[in-house]
Amino acid sequence: MNELDKFNLRKVILDEYLQIEEGLKLGQEIKIDGDFKSITVSGMGGSALPADVLKILIADNLQSDEKNVSKKYFQIYQNRSYGLPMEAYDNSLNIICSYSGNTEETIASFQEALKNDLLCVGISNGGKIEEMCKENGVPHIKIPYPFENFQPRMATGYFVFAIFKILENLGVVKNNDDNFIKDADKLKERTLAMEEDGKKLAKKLVGKTPIIYSTEQLKALAMIWKIKFNENSKTPAFWNYFPEVNHNEMVGFTNPQADFFFIMLRDRDIHPQMLKRFETMSKLMSEKGLETAIVNIEGKNVLEKIFSTLYLGDWTSYYLALEYNIDPTPVEMVEKFKKLIA
Q1: Residues 77, 41: contact at Cβ < 8 Å?
Q2: For 8-38, what is each residue's pLDDT tens digit?
Q3: Contact status, residue 27 vs residue 39, Cβ threshold 8 Å
Q4: pLDDT per residue over 80-89, tens digit each?
Q5: Distance CA 39, CA 239 (A)
Q6: Does residue 259 fall inside a structural domain?
Q7: Is residue 313 part of a domain?
Q8: How many whole angstroms separate alpha carbon 191 and alpha carbon 147?
Q9: Domain that holds residue 142
Q10: Is 335 contained in some domain?
Q11: Residues 169, 274: one domain?
């Protein structure tokens, strides 16, 4: 344990694979009556990330289920605000996510849902969200608090697989528990190798501004890497996705105003023209004197690809924080901001 890492974030990352099976267990008793068209996930910050991941996982599950054709158009909507979007009112199950249970935007959305008699499930470690669920007879899932100062951004697996289980109980997705647990074991086996890869990449990033790209299908992974650099490494970072980036953003690097480093998260099982975009973009940026690293996404299925990529991002941002002599866990500016607007 590094002395800078006061809350042992390294141990948190090492144990992330356990959240897959635990998340499935957390959601197994939540059974809601109704034939919903969608779910609307209300949450902020780290408590909003699960919906981004779920979109990838659920899309793959539905497309591979030939017996469940009617569910292929099931939607996952996200709400990162004080009020519900119109989709939340259209036969949607509202999932209220706040790790602390005290996120003011999410509480406001929950209050609106209750006022309008919308069906909800609350997910939190406790706080006001749990209290509101008990007061209003709303099902609640209590997310664990496994370590001191455990941060919402590190709880993605708990949320993702608890919600997946809810959708399974609704009949939206097929049961895949056994395969998911096997995938978790594979991730465990590879985590130390991913740690070394993250450590090497972090050394290349010192003093540079990371820009993370992936494909449209996996753009959530690029966004989450960006967030982990912000919150773990305490450094600016930016993200976008192919092919859109080639139609506008790349022109901005004609006259770069910082020392950028491009990390391109590449799934090799994509359209051949998309593969060309990774190589060509890397070449163009190199001609501008900007460094790039193409990271090949590992895994034999979508779950492995998602979480191996996320764990590598965790390791990279963790070791970049240590390179900067920073404790990666606390987010002091967020806590100060909350107090200032209270």
Answers
A1: yes
A2: 999 999 999 999 999 999 999 999 988 899 9
A3: no
A4: 999 999 999 9
A5: 26
A6: yes
A7: yes
A8: 19
A9: 9-175
A10: no
A11: no
